[in-house]
Amino acid sequence: MIAFILRRSLLSIPMLIFISFISFVIIQLPPGDYVTAYAAQLAKSGDYLSAVQQEAMRERLGLNDPILIQYWRWITAIIFKGDFGYSLDWNAPVSTLIWDRLAITLALSTASLIITWIIAIPVGVYSATRQYSVLDYVFTVFGFLGKGTPDFLLALILMWISFVYLQLDVGGLFSTDYQNAPWSWGKFVDLLQHLWIPLVVLGTSGAAGLIRVMRANMLDELGKPYVETAYAQGLSERQVVWRYPVRVALNPFISTVGWALPALFSGDVITAIVLNLPTTGPLLLQALKMQDMYLAGSFILILSAFTVIGTLISDILLAWFDPRIRYA
Amino acid sequence: MALTVLRVGDEEKSMNAKNWFATISLAALSTAALTVSAWAFQEAPMLTEMVEAGTLPPVEERLPTNPTVVDALSVGEYGGTWRRAYSGPGDRWGPTKLMEERVLKWAAGPDGTAQLTPGYIESYSVNEDSTEFTFTLLEGLKWSDGHPVTTEDVRFWYEDIFLNPKIVATIDPTFSPGGVPMELEIADERTFTVKFAQPYVYFLQILAKDSTGEPSLDRPSFVFPKHYLSQFNDKYASEEELAAAAAEFGVASWTDLWGSKGAATAWWANPDLPVLTAWKIETPAPAENVTMVRNPYYWAVDQEGNQLPYIDRINHRLYQDPQSLALMVAQGQIDAQDRGMSEPYDFYKENEERGNFHLVPWLGSGVWSLIPNMNTTDEALNALYADERVRQALSVGIDRELIIELTQSGLAKPVQAAPVAGSPYYQEDLATHWTEYDPDLANELLDEAGLAERDSEGFRLRPDGKRFTIVVEGGDMALSKQLELIAESYSEIGIEILPRVIDRTQFDTNRANNDFDMQYLVFDRLTYVPADPRVMMGSESYANQSYVWYSTDGASGIEPPADSDFRKIYDLWDKASSAPSVEEADKSMNELIRTFVEGGYVIGVHGAGVRVNVVSNRMHNVQADLVMDDIFREVGLSRTQQYWLDQD
Prior knowledge:
The structure holds two protein chains of two kinds. Chain A is mainly alpha-helical. Chain A contains 18 helices and two strands. In chain A, strands 1-2 form a two-stranded antiparallel sheet. In chain A, helix 5 (94-129) crosses helix 14 (257-266) and helix 16 packs across helix 17 (293-321). Chain B is of the alpha+beta class. In chain B, 31% of the residues lie in helices and 16% in strands. In chain B, strands 18-17-19-16-20 form a five-stranded mixed beta sheet. Chains A and B meet through helix 2, helix 3, strand 2, helix 15 and helix 16 of A and strand 12, helix 10 and helix 19 of B.
């Protein structure tokens, strides 16, 4: 098992380098570069960079160098100094920009993932064991509705309701007064007041899909001989269902745990923008639009790293969870 | 609501504008001397605390001997935090324009007119032929850290920065008219003179808009804090010291510390940088809340001797989407802001009570315009654009009233892209040139221009047999409704319009790469045209490539035909920018404007619209009906240091 983990980890390094290189190139594919985007932004605010100034800026930022050299500068600094480079747009080292946001994103996404599971697994199991019951139909209707409603729309509706009817301060994770304040009870309460909308939005939409998956998997399993055998042994329904078919039906959840990690960071950009959340999504989008290569590149690199790590975790979990895989 | 920008009376018009500005500043200075010596100075409670704690010298020692007097609309109360919002690093002009300082700056007079008023100078003078400009700094002027400001800071700015090719690789033509950089002469500790090789009558106005840095917009004019910045300058610091400084700021080389995005010299990024502005940065981006705090050494007082500003702090909250900002406004989280308000007027009006705010109307000076690409490489289209009849048809073929009614809540006017009412360059016939909706005339003109043939769907055919189709690009989703209405208007006269709303970066890149048929954007800088005539000369606009040809002396870009209006326009600017007197310069300027507008190179749709400006009911001294133009530094015209908040 340990050899397996080691081998997989080592293999992921060239993979990561390859991904980082490709993403660095892709970021640069659209016409223009950071200076063009910056000049455009200036022009929008009514100011100008002359062609000469633009050229000087390109020279200063090293944007005229061949892309291989730019990539080399960036990746070697990361590998040897842990330095992710400088965000041209924010005028700040990339590392000061991303870690806070990554932490918030991780916390938010983990919480919503847990909510998803808490809702989806019992409901899925219930729907499968009580197929075509009234509640099954109710869950099905809500499931399809939830799956069909885009997150950002749900976010807008919830914001509108809390704004118009509940008179709540919505948008962002903190109100202005607490944003720069150190942690306190008041700040925590303030966070809870803001947190429920994103959690509901992110949690329910995920749950809607997972309910269907869980239900279908359970239905597949419930008819199998081992279930019949278990019943024949005189076990109660609760014991049979939760000990055997549920474990098997959870298989796809486990194998996609790895994808959940990167999805946490890149997913729901629109929702985050609508809700004004200080997560990574909006920052990544802005970095891509501005062709802020070092920032965008770092995000993509980190995302890829999470994908690789996540897949690794999935594999290990799956091997641990489902004995059949270990022996396959 | 009348647009009044610069109500220059007839007798003033006949005066030399140099004198006109000088009169205003002299008047201000004499009141300054009279009122201030009569009263003791007052300061904000938060500063008094620091003085009592012994961390700050008393207010008399911090202020100049004769501080600049800002005549506040009403004398205010000290304290409070002004809540605003910003959309990210690209939006730093939000904070910047609130607190720019210059030797001379546009400020609104009590009647709302824009006047050039002295900043941190005691006096200035201009010689007979406008080649020499002399300024005297306030006596006892200090940086925000208490260090005195002297002409040594001017010399440092000029010799070690402005003329330092490592920091400023090329000197902007604005500061080197005729290709010769301005020269500096220092008389004493407070007085210096800048000289030009040729007359430069618009220099003071350019200074008020552009300052003198590189590219400068938020720098004070002529001065840089030598005592702080010399540690980042190659003339004063060793190579090791410079390398260490670069490492400390996390940039690759010491030159990255400089410039408009420089880590050390950008005021909004570096809290240690001494400034002359009313507030200075306290918590810089990327914080979710970017805050500014009052400068204890700010050098201006109100009419009763209260040191300005009144407000302690400014807080900028980060938002990702304009809708989020609109929501913050409706929830009463914004104290005064006009920037980024893209929602329609009605939305704000409806939520005034809930959000405890009111709208103080300001006026936009820009005109939403269709910009045909006069340099397009599509030869048939180019030939059509070059035909004056086609340009006229494109202009009279738009139902402007309908667009204003349906998309602007009726709060704009059908105007041409020409100087706005109240501007000294305003001409009524130009403002309404070709703006009357007349589809019959448009059809007639297009028939005459050889476009009489139509296809089965009723669209006209170009001489090369293709349908007369124009792709119109917009850089913002909010424009799609207007573009649809324009398309409808044009289909009536047999022209097919394909509206395309694209990403803003792509939109601007297309213009830079000469890759568009027509774009829809705001044509601005229409109040005091000579302060920045570039857009009217085609730059980043209707003839970008021709302007490139002009500005690079023919080295690149597209050469306009010998008899073209463009050459005439460039010649007129050359003449205006080197004329020895304002009268002569203005004569060329007016001719330039006339040539541009009568040529119909840009098709103005609507302008003189209301600029949504949200002001909380706690906020005072926000003057109504001001004209917002980049030339006046927009919100800067309203003199933000005199804003104040109710204290309870």
